[in-house]
Amino acid sequence: MAGAGDRSIAALGVSLAANLRVGSSHVSASATALAGQRILLCVGGGIAAYKSLELVRRLRDAGAAVQVAMTAGAQQFVTPLSFQALSGHPTRTTLWDGAAEQAMGHLELARWAERVVVAPATADLLARLAHGLADDLVATLCLATEAPLAVVPAMNHRMWRHPATEANVAALRARGVQVIGPDDGPLAEGESGPGRLSEPEAIVAALAGTAGPAVVASGLLQGLKVVVSAGPTYEDLDPVRYLGNRSSGKMGFAVADAAARQGAQVVLVSGPVQLETPRGVRRMDVRSAAQMRQAVADALPADIYVGAAAVADYTARAFSPSKIKKTGTGQSLVLDLVRTPDILAEVAQRADAGLKLVVGFAAETDNVADYARQKLTAKRLDLIVANRVGVPGSGFESDDNAMTAYWPGGERDFPPAPKVRLADGLVELIAERLRA
Ligand code: CTP
User: I want to staple 37 with a disulfide (CB 3.0 to 4.6 A). Which of 5, 64, 82, 144 is the partner?
Assistant: First the structure.
């Protein structure tokens, strides 16, 4: 009966398990997380390749063992010898080097790696990785490895914003690839915009998981205001009991965080949850569906509304000021409940709210696609994100999820991944739909 992104059935008197995850960023944490890790650094052909020298040093400082592979383009900017000196291993530059292959075959190198980092990842390299090409050593290693892949893009800002690059990055993210950066700022050609390679320190922190899911914004939602609702609502029955649901709020908080990192001004309307407010986000705490409705109305106008809250669909017709006493054995208790207003549908219909995009969530146990598309139409949404609940390792309370987004005429699958990563992918899709 409750609604939403990470919600569930209403349960009398159920309180949420405290599940506090706090992220901090400091070097010792990076060192702990990366100590002893075998990292394969693949260097692409961009001017930012010189920063990867510093990256090798910092990864080794954090305790990682580093081997380096370079594309032909990368060798135009930095020499293999420099990487060899810093990594303490021969640098691999081609598939066709018999001596190097004999020492350690490229498939062996792909297996050796516990983590593969591509930095800088040029537009060309991202395209080749997105399409699964194996036309040089670096692409082959990335295809052959089973280790988690992280890419650190660096390129001209027009190339970064090109729909082809955006689609390639979205495809990589959807496969669970970690995308770090790029930074916004001055670029090599005297221009400015998103496309700078993240600083080595930030890359190390992101790899170590100490800087949140993706450190740096690329400004996809720059200048836009986003209102996100998250968490459950509690509908009080009497002074000691309420109707609640098992939503943890993690998905909505992750979306708010991702939007803020993409440059948006974010207001997060949150039901009762045990979560830290994401950096740079304005938070409004509420308890009931009625309070959430009011807070959302107060937060508007905005450019984007994301309804990720598990709003109760029913509330008590009347709050009992005194504790409801139990009746005789064998007698049942009947609660008189009334419908709450559908906040999402109301928002979607408001012409004065300035909204360019309204996004809903649908948590379903079956017929996911059908029910989601019905809600998309019935609530007049621009985008709906559906996830199947009731399966282990996904949905409410879980850190992970799998979901599919539907819009009129299209859909996108997000395979199982941590919610923080899915939120990055969703915000990217939101930016795409805004421009469509
Ligand atoms: N929602 C809302 N206000 C409500 C109920 C739901 O804003 N009173 C929003 C949720 O935030 C979510 C979306 O509607 O984005 C879908 O919620 P869901 O519960 O899946 O759908 P319902 O419309 O409640 O349908 P049902 O419970 O029958 O599946």
Answer: 64
d(CA 386, CA 409): 16
360 CB near ligand 1 (under 6 Å): yes
Q: What is the pLDDT of residues 403-426, one digit of tens each?
A: 999 999 999 998 888 888 899 999
SS3 state at 140: helix
- In the annotation, is 245 catalytic? yes
What letter does residue 190 receive in the DSSP assignment? S
- CA dist 248 and 309 (Å) reads 9
pLDDT tens for 242-290 read 999 999 999 999 999 999 988 899 999 999 999 989 888 899 999 999 9
Task: At 162, list the tokens.
Answer: 């090109």
The residue whose CB lies within 8 Å of the most ligand 1 atoms, and thus the one to mutate among 343, 346, 371, is 343
CA of 247 to the centre of ligand 1 (A): 13
- Per the annotation, does 379 bind a ligand? yes
Domain 21-209 fold is Rossmann fold (3.40.50)
CA-atom Rg of the chain in angstroms: 24
Cα 2 to middle of ligand 1, angstroms: 7
C-alpha dihedral sign at 72, 73, 74, 79: positive
Let me know: does 44 contact 286? Beta carbons within 8 Å.
no
In DSSP terms, 183 is beta-bridged to 196
**DSSP codes of every residue in 127-179:** HHHHTT--SSHHHHHHHH--S-EEEEE---HHHHHSHHHHHHHHHHHHTT-EE
* Architecture in CATH for domain 225-320+333-435: 3-Layer(aba) Sandwich (3.40)
Strand partners, 338: 315
The more confidently predicted of residues 16 and 385 is 385
For the chain, helix (H) and strand (E) counts, in that order, are 16, 20
pLDDT score recorded for residue 420: 87
Does the CA dihedral 278-279-282-283 come out positive or negative?
Answer: positive
Matching fold, domains 21-209 and 225-320+333-435: yes
Spatial CA neighbour of 48 closest among 74, 9, 87: 74
Rounded to an integer, the average pLDDT of 12-32 is 37
Residue 338 has φ and ψ, to the nearest 5°, of: -125, 155
Q: Identify which of 168, 137, 164 has the alpha carbon closest to the alpha carbon of residue 151.
A: 168
The domain ranges of the chain are 21-209, 225-320+333-435
Task: Please report, rounded to a whole number, the percentage of residues in the chain having pLDDT higher than 70.
Answer: 89
Query: Which tens digits make up the pLDDT trace of 311-343?
Result: 999 999 999 999 999 888 889 999 999 999 999
Locus of tokens 């890419």: 151
